[in-house]
Amino acid sequence: MASGLRGRIGRRATAPGSTAPGSTAPGSTAPGSTMPGSTTASGPAPTPGSTAAHGSDSGDGSNAAPSTSSSGDTRPAVPEPRAADGDPPGPGGEPPAAGGRGAGAGRTASAGRVAKAGRVASGGRAAGPVPSGRGSGVRLRAAQAGLAVLLALVWVPIVVLTTARSTVLSPDFYSQSLTEADAYDRIYTEVLPDPAVDSLLSGLPIDSSLVTANLRTVLPPSTVEEMTDEQIRRIVGYLSAKDDDLAFTVDLTPIFGNISGLANRYIAGELGSGSSYQVESVTDFTRAILTAIDEIMAGRPPADLPTMQLSAQDTDRVVDAVLGRLPAADRDEMAGPLRADLRSGDVAGALALVGPLLFQGDEQAIGEMRSHLTDGAVLDLGVRLSDLRDEPAISAVSRLHDVSAALDGLTVALLALVGLIGVAIIGLAARRGRSRVRALAAAVITAGAAAGLFGVAMRILLPNPLLALDKPGGPLPPGAGAVLADFSRHAYGDIEADYLRIVGWTLLVGMVVVGAAVFRRVSGRWGRVGRRRRLAGGLVVTIPVMIAVTWVAFPGAAATGRELCNGQAQLCAKRYDEVTYLATHNAMANSEDRFLGPTQDPSLVHQLDLGVRALLLDVHHWTTPEQVDAVLATLPPTTRAAIEPLTRNARSARPGLWLCHDMCQLGALDLVEELGKVGDWMARNPSEVVTFIIQDGVPASEIAGAVAQAGLSRLVVTPPADDGSWPTLREMVDSGRRLAVFTESQDLPGTFLRSFYRYASDTPFSVDSADKLVGCARNRGEAGSELLLLNNWVTDAAPSRQAALVANNADRILDRAHSCESEQGRRPTFVAVDFVNIGDAQLAVDRLNGAS
């Protein structure tokens, strides 16, 4: 028992006073020697009752089997130490003495070579031999870590260069940022209305509001975008070293197209009011008609017109000659009306029909402009970037141009270096006996993390310098500063998004590879788990994932449907007269449809898209010359001087009903066609209630006929009788009768077309300053009317964007609405504004309707 206890103690700890390695303790045997009466592992065959330690040294640090002495003591058998690499074995196969000290197998090797078993470590644990490659393994590990760091250092510039190529060196990047910032539309809604811009235009010989109101007609956002994109392409071409120099030129072709289009619309139907003369032959009459057509095509009204009583046969000859000048697609449609006008002797009417189809603008004036331009359309400012290299800012741009020439080669070289580093990492991992896949994935994750940290550092060190433009006291007018600041926000955001996208993919690839390796290991263990446990675990993981994916992909499927009326659920239970609607003054006179002197920018349908639910429309027959003169006489001198050349001696006649303001020659839309577009919009938006308030310059029966012709009869609602009440919006939507049509002057009892002021009153509309838009005095209509129209625009020389910026402020509108409650006992039913896309009138209407 004592010897067994000693054996166990010998395996656990070295007794105090034990001998140093390489010596033999008293009472113990050295490895390779025998105790009296005992048998060693290397001696003769064991005697009965003794145990041999065959194969005890397994190489993994395990202890040999104990040997039994003749006295019954059991002692741990100690394996022979292995020979070091390169040392020859001793006699009889024994390992040589270490360092030549202590011959025989019983000596413990010194100089760092320790027997795996046979001596007890200081901590009481059996210590194995230290592999001779430990120092080499440390070096390999350090080399692999160094390669991972090098890969990160090389990957960061690759991410930067790739991001630069997809952003600052791409024309689409700038175009997309300008579009995201709504820069082209905001020129007209924020820049032009800015008082600072108005002051810049104060030196012009005409009212500045004429310029700001009409600029969008001559230079619409699409044209500005087209011209800007062209400049961006040329600048980026220089920055990316595709072009050697940059010339400052502007292609005016889009502007010429707009000028020509305006002339085609407003001048093509105008004919001279000169004298007429009698002709005797059909040949002379035909020649004179064709000459007049030539004048119209050149943009000049003919000085005089021929007259002749034509027979049916003569009329056909003239009609054939005129139709020969028209495009083939228009001949059949024009033949009947043209024959009727010529047969009745209305030569001016016949020419008014064909004029718009033939006239292509004042080509003489445009031709004169083209004579001063390069290639007839390009305005060359005579400056090259190379002429400005001495300027500091231009010098920086030029350096970027020079560097860009080497970017392709640099990127290729860096990518090649990344490949070499990856191969080296795989090779080192193989030498270390580690997973090559995991080693490379870890290096990729390191590179992605380094690129992410670099991006964060650059975002902190390089803030957006253009944000200062949006602050008070900036170098630009507030409107322009706000547009540029928003552009820079989107541009910086796109750069960050592209950069982080590359970083994210880098990290994702690395983590997916690591995850796949881990999954492979786990799957091996998973295969040994019971079938039921595997099924339960799979369901626990799969069901939540499926629910989450379904929720993300179909968010509305799990939501409760809500009934909406005019976009808000709480409005459905309210009567028509209890709701407030955003309205547009002179809604048809918009710059999108190329009106001169527009009061709105979007078309009728686009106004509805913006939230407008009441359209104030003017319906007229085509304006006669006498009416033109009468309208011009009412205008201020500066406005009349600007407009009169476009209407001088106008003698045009067009059948049908037109949406136009004052003079149809300055802009007109076919009533039936536009009503049809509104009907299509209502079909696409079946829960919206819309109102027309028509200034009727034509008989009410003709307006009712146009409504029916446009297919709106199924939508119109008949206003209630004097003692009746309006339906709720829900009732109007459910019945499909959700279009209310009023006229200002006429009334057709028993029909859907009733006089607006039979049911409503309004506020004064002739206000020459935004500061005077206060209070809620009653103008037309009876006190206590069910409906109230709040006229909230400024009447001046021309519709003013600057005035709209002030008038359409939500707080000002709400103040006026509260005044209406105190002065007229009700909130406004309609809030009518100019330039509805300027300001936040819709916000005021939403608040009046109780929206949060």
Short précis:
By secondary structure, the protein is an alpha/beta fold.
Shape, per Cα inertia axes: globular
Report strand %: 5-15%
Separate helix tally: 27
Low-confidence stretches: 1-132, 264-274, 361-365, 556-560
Distance between the termini: 91 Å
Keywords, separated by commas or semicolons:
ten-stranded mixed beta sheet; two-stranded antiparallel ribbon; 47% helix; disordered N terminus; alpha/beta; 852 residues
Overview of this structure, please?
With 852 residues, the protein is α/β, with parallel strands linked by helices. The chain has 27 helices and 16 strands. It is globular. It starts with a helix and ends with a helix. Residues 1-132, 264-274, 361-365 and 556-560 have low confidence and may be disordered.
Summarize the topology:
Layout: H1 2-12, E1 66-68, E2 74-76, H2 134-166, H3 171-180, H4 183-191, H5 195-200, H6 208-218, H7 221-239, E3 247-251, H8 253-266, E4 276-278, H9 282-297, E5 305-307, H10 312-323, H11 328-344, H12 347-358, H13 363-370, E6 378-384, H14 392-404, H15 407-431, H16 436-461, H17 478-526, H18 531-553, E7 581-584, H19 604-609, E8 614-620, H20 625-633, H21 637-647, E9 658-659, E10 669-670, H22 671-684, E11 690-696, H23 700-709, H24 729-735, E12 739-743, E13 754-755, E14 760-762, E15 787-791, H25 801-807, H26 810-823, E16 830-833, H27 841-848
Parallel strand pairs: 4-5, 7-8, 7-16, 8-11, 11-12, 12-13, 14-15, 15-16
Antiparallel strand pairs: 1-2, 3-6, 8-9, 9-10
